[in-house]
User: What shape does this take?
Amino acid sequence: RVADKGLLIDPESKIQTSLSVAKLAVLIRLLVVDKIIINKSVAPMLRTITKLFTTLQKDEISFGSMETKYHAPDKNTINMMKGMLQKWVGIVGKL
Assistant: This one.
């Protein structure tokens, strides 16, 4: 088992996103609900996500913020994600 501080990622190696923490949390939750991400425990998976990803506003995502937004997404974020997913349907049709 790797200690929380054991996973050190070079900032240049992080996956950089244009998402907010709330949108990233909902996207990860969708992947879990659809059984694309199949980790047995949510907390360690979220800790890894916070270490590997950046958001538009933050190079360092706090675990507490990610966990809260993952378990209790707000309606506004859910509606924004619905729009993003509808856009994806159009994009996937062009692949």
Observations:
- Residues 75-93 form the longest helix (19 residues).
